[in-house]
Design brief:
By secondary structure, the protein is of the alpha/beta class. Strand 6 and strand 7 form a beta hairpin. The longest helix has 24 residues. The protein starts with a strand and ends in a 7-residue tail after the last strand.
Length: about 290
């Protein structure tokens, strides 16, 4: 599926992909369950169905079903979500990615940190343009987004903005880069195996490396329309809709944009994978 970098030798990429398939399947199945449920089943719903409704409200801004079931616009939204999960699952299960054009990296040992436009542009640029900082460029061209720098390699064959790598210098080739934090077991669980969630839990305790991978895969395979990191307003800042709470805010303020927000897919699939959990939020101090 990918050409795997030697930096991944110590990582269990097969488990990563298998867990991502399990999450995508859970998300797809949950969306189908909600679409297939009758108005009566919503009225007399089980705890699991109630939890799926909460998950859909959190990730997609779906309204609680009325006496006639889901609203038409919510059904349309969930059908699109279901189809996108199905595409992701099929892509992963059947290796529908060209390994000659897609590369997977597990750390930053071959990359360099860059803070100026002149450091990352493949074509020659003027001194004036080259001296513009990446931080200022993002603020001026991406609605005030805060980005301190990006990773790149000296030959411009790899580039990194946070975790996802899209190589703009070699046509359609793509690189995925999971930074060291994604493999840190104190931040992300390395596998779904053995994880159980019942009763009141916090999302941070069930965030997985596979969830990070699923998020990045949504960027990689969906181009038109692109699945991106949508922005929300928090005070005077614009920040990415990452995590349960920010995805919920996105669904409340800009419901239509949840379907093009990568982390909404991670959040919903994780909540769907643990249908007996009662989610209290991202973390106790969040």
């Amino acid at each position: 599926m990918f050409s795997i970098s030697s930096t991944c030798n110590s990582r269990d990429v097969n488990t990563l992909v298998s867990d991502a398939i399990a999450l995508a399947t859970a998300g797809e199945s949950a969306a189908k369950t909600l679409l297939d449920s009758s108005a009566f089943s919503f009225i007399s719903r089980s705890i699991k169905l109630s939890n799926l409704i909460r998950a859909a409200s959190t990730a997609w801004g779906i309204k609680p079903p009325g006496i006639f079931g889901l609203a038409a616009e919510d059904r349309t939204q969930l059908k699109r979500v279901q189809d996108n999960y199905a595409t992701l699952r099929d892509t992963l299960q059947n290796s529908k990615i060209d390994p000659s054009q897609n590369f997977f990296h597990c750390d930053s040992s071959v990359l360099e940190w860059a803070t100026k436009i002149g450091d990352i542009w493949a074509a020659p640029v003027s001194d004036e343009i080259g001296s513009i900082t990446i931080e200022d460029w993002y603020k001026n061209n991406h609605q005030g987004m805060s980005v301190k720098g990006v990773w790149k390699d000296p030959e411009h064959t790899k580039g990194k903005t946070f975790n996802f790598v899209g190589d703009a210098h070699n046509g359609d080739s793509n690189n995925m880069f999971l930074c060291p934090q994604a493999w840190d077991p104190t931040r992300f669980k390395p596998t779904l195996s053995g994880l159980e969630a019942k009763g009141e839990v916090y999302f941070k305790d069930y965030s997985t490396t596979a969830g990070v991978f699923l998020h990045e895969m949504m960027h990689l395979i969906f181009k038109e329309p692109a699945i991106i990191d949508e922005l929300i307003e928090v005070g005077t800042s614009r920040v990415r809709a990452y995590g349960m709470i920010k995805c919920f805010i996105l669904g409340t303020d800009k419901k239509a944009q949840t379907v093009t927000n990568a982390d909404s897919y991670m959040v919903f699939s994780t909540m769907a994978y643990f249908p007996e959990a009662l989610w209290l939020g991202d973390a106790p101090d969040a």
